[in-house]
Amino acid sequence: MGCVLVDIDPALSVNRDNPTGIVDQPQLPRFKAYTNYDNYVGVETWTKIGINNTDYNDQGMFDAVNNRFVAPVDGTYLFGATLMYKVNASTAARMIGRLVLNGTIEVRGSYGEISG
What we know:
Layout: E1 15-16, E2 23-24, E3 32-34, E4 53-56, E5 62-63, E6 68-69, E7 94-97, E8 100-101, E9 105-106, E10 112-115
């Protein structure tokens, strides 16, 4: 039999649904964001992709105006991304993507490349 530790502060609570056993952390920092327009990316240059909308951002951790997630506490965070590109004039186009920390440091393991 397992146990659930609960903080006395309701803002930091962990909830357990007794009938299902599902545990929820309503204050866990999380968001789901996307772009609703085409970002033009020039050849041979790194371009910051604007992410301007959120499907989920209840804790307000993602700032769509500044295109930034600010972690409220030190820890490990999981990020994922899906990228799609359209070819303008060159059929030899390729795309390289990466996540960066604090605007400059490439996050290890986030670099990816595709060519078409």
